[in-house]
Design brief:
This protein is an alpha+beta fold. Helices cover about 35% and strands about 25% of the residues. The chain has helices at about 10-15, 40-50, 110-130, 190-200, 205-220, 235-245, 250; strands at about 20, 25-30, 30-35, 55-70, 75-90, 95-105, 150. Helix 2 packs across helix 6 (about 235-245). The two termini are about 35 Å apart. Residues about 160-170 have low confidence and may be disordered.
């Protein structure tokens, strides 16, 4: 039987603590829950395994609930839909699977189904990737979060060409002014921006509308901003867009 062996750099990246800057929180049933966003999990998989080093396959999806309901304080008529999904992640000969659920609430039944399917697939994907290690959220299952650290001690890059770095001596905590800048805020060069815009503008109209809506929501673009083109300027925007295109590849095909 052939067994896939990860490189030394990949093993180091998978074993490294989770960067707290990548963790989001939400309130649920009176509790604060920590989680990774779907695009972040995809970005980590691309970073560690390589853009062509892993595959994602939805092997099962099922609608388990569809019912009419009221929406918001206005009590508008709408729909609530729930899906379950199972996703398989393959990295060479290593195969992991995860199950997830997604809920869609919308005045339009089709939109409710679409939201629920996407959420279920993303949830299942994250659960499958989580089995590979801390960078995919495994560290969050420890209630004390002992393997979640600040950006200054973030996971190493899994690029096989990178050199091992000797552990630095323990230092006193840095003030905010002394801390290393967040690399996700690095500006994009004009050529990369133009390439991104060309790709986005080439999307089919339904996919382009979905992308614009999702980008505005993710990066809190003001409603009065007529365009998002000038908002695509940082590394985090590029990573999110790449992850969006992977997640919605059926829409852009």
């Amino acid at each position: 039987m052939t067994i896939a062996v990860f490189s030394t750099q990949q093993i180091a990246a998978l074993s490294a603590p989770l960067d707290r800057a990548k963790v989001q929180t939400r309130s649920q049933a009176g509790r604060s829950l920590a989680y990774l966003e779907g695009w972040q999990a995809i970005a980590e998989a691309n970073r560690i395994f390589g853009f062509d080093g892993w595959q994602r396959e939805t092997i099962a999806v099922q609608c388990v609930s569809e019912r009419e309901r009221t929406l918001g304080s206005s009590n508008r008529a709408g729909w609530g839909v729930t899906y379950t999904a199972r996703v398989r992640i393959s990295v060479g000969d290593v195969i992991r699977e995860g199950s997830g659920a997604g809920h869609g609430i919308d005045a339009d039944l089709g939109q409710a189904h679409e939201s629920a399917i996407k959420e279920a697939e993303t949830d299942a994907m994250k659960r499958a990737l989580m089995t590979f290690g801390n960078p995919f959220g495994l560290a969050l299952y420890d209630k004390q979060q002992r393997e979640v650290t600040s950006s200054a001690t973030a996971a190493p890059n899994a690029n096989p060409r990178s050199r091992p770095v000797e552990a630095a001596p323990r230092q006193q905590p840095q003030s905010p002014a002394q801390q290393e800048p967040d690399p996700s805020l690095d500006p994009l060069d004009p050529g990369t921006i133009q390439q991104i815009l060309a790709t986005v503008r080439g999307l089919p109209r339904p996919a382009l509308e979905g992308f614009t809506k999702a980008f505005r929501k993710r990066f809190q673009v003001p409603p009065d901003a007529l365009s998002i083109a000038d908002r695509i300027c940082q590394r985090r925007h590029h990573e999110w867009i790449e992850a969006f295109l992977v997640q919605h590849q059926q829409l852009v095909a």
